[in-house]
């Protein structure tokens, strides 16, 4: 009986110790968990405090940003800042494009006890750096109905450490690498005033690449960019209307530290796809008789050079 009583006391004491810990949790950069492809020159950091004690509150915090995963190469840190703020904005030296950073937060509870979070990360994107790829399309005919396929094959003779695909599209798209669709979004990228700006999306495609020959495939749709149906607010008369186009940089870092950029240019192959019509208003029409099996792999050779 005494032994059971002691065990109960130990369990209770352990639980109480865990409750007393004020841990920083839910670390986010630009409101995303470990994001990649950030273009914000002064990203924002947020966190929460996990403390179930009555009256628990953060009394101060300090933020640290590093250029290495071990947390040794300090890039920027705040002073110890008193208060309950759970948002801080980066104020350090300019961040480099295509670079990964790690960060953590140390906070103090209402009793003055401190605790630190594990390291979180964020990765910068283009950051205004020049694209190596160029905008390509298959024709100047904005009234052509079928959506276009594009593909390019390339060799990877060395071991790949990491790879990122950066793609900007006038229209809508699906991106494939070695036959696998990349990402789970639909209707990317979101609408913008296309004659003023175009958005790009970043993907981690390290796992999709392989040693030997690789293939990239892109399927382009009209979206709001090339509205072929009569539309409210005259989108079919928009001054930017043109055949959908895209610009892509696939940046590969090899295990020996060397880098290579596979880019969109005139040597991509193109063909009309089985998507014979597509419109934001009037849906997508698909003719399976026109399929090109393996179009987004290195196995098919029925597409032709013709990107513009």
3D structure, described in words:
This protein has 308 residues and is mainly β. It has 2 domains: 103 residues, Immunoglobulins (Immunoglobulin-like, Sandwich); 158 residues, Jelly Rolls. It has 1 helix and 21 strands. The strands form 5 sheets. Strands 3, 4, 5, 7, 8 and 9 form a 6-stranded antiparallel sheet that branches. Strands 13-12-15-10-18-21 form a 6-stranded antiparallel sheet, with no helix packed on it. The protein has a 4-stranded antiparallel sheet with strand order 14-11-16-17, with no helix packed on it. Strand 3 and strand 4 form a beta hairpin. The longest helix is centred in the N-terminal third of the chain and has 19 residues. The radius of gyration is 25 Å and the shape is elongated. InterPro entries: Alpha_rhamnosid, Bac_rhamnosid_N, FN3_sf, Galactose-bd-like_sf, Ig-like_fold. It holds the Pfam family Bac_rhamnosid_N. This is Alpha-L-rhamnosidase N-terminal domain-containing protein. Keywords: Signal.
List the helices and strands and how they pair.
Layout: H1 2-20, E1 23-29, E2 44-50, E3 58-66, E4 74-77, E5 81-82, E6 87-89, E7 100-109, E8 114-116, E9 120-123, E10 148-156, E11 160-170, E12 172-177, E13 180-181, E14 200-204, E15 212-221, E16 245-254, E17 259-263, E18 269-272, E19 275-279, E20 283-286, E21 304-305
Protein name: Alpha-L-rhamnosidase N-terminal domain-containing protein
Keywords: Signal
Signal peptide: 1-21
């Amino acid at each position: 009986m005494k032994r059971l009583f002691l065990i109960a006391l130990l369990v209770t004491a352990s639980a109480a110790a865990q409750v007393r810990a004020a841990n920083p949790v839910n670390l986010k950069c630009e409101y995303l968990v470990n994001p990649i492809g950030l273009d914000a020159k002064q990203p924002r950091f947020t966190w929460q405090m996990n403390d179930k004690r009555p009256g628990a509150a953060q009394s101060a915090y300090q933020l640290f940003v590093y250029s290495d995963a071990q947390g040794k190469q300090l890039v920027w840190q705040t002073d110890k800042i008193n208060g309950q703020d759970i948002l801080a904005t980066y104020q350090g030296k300019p961040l480099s494009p295509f670079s990964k950073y790690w960060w953590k937060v140390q906070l103090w509870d209402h009793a003055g006890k401190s605790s630190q979070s594990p390291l979180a990360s964020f990765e910068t994107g283009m950051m205004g750096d020049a694209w190596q790829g160029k905008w390509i399309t298959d024709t100047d005919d904005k009234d052509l109905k079928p959506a276009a396929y594009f593909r390019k094959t390339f060799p990877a003779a060395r071991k790949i450490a990491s790879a990122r695909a950066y793609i900007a599209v006038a229209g809508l798209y699906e991106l494939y690498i070695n036959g696998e669709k990349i990402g789970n979004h639909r209707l990317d990228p979101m609408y913008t005033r296309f004659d003023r700006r175009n958005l790009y999306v970043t993907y981690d495609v390290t796992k999709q690449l392989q040693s030997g020959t690789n293939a990239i495939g892109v399927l382009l749709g009209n979206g709001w960019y090339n509205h072929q149906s009569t539309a409210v607010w005259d989108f079919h008369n928009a001054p930017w209307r043109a055949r959908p186009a895209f610009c892509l940089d696939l940046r590969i870092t090899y295990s020996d530290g060397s880098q290579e950029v596979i880019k969109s240019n005139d040597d991509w192959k193109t063909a009309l796809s089985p998507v014979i019509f597509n419109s934001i208003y009037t849906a997508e029409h698909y003719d399976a008789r026109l399929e090109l099996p393996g179009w987004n792999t290195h196995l098919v050779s029925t597409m032709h050079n013709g990107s513009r």
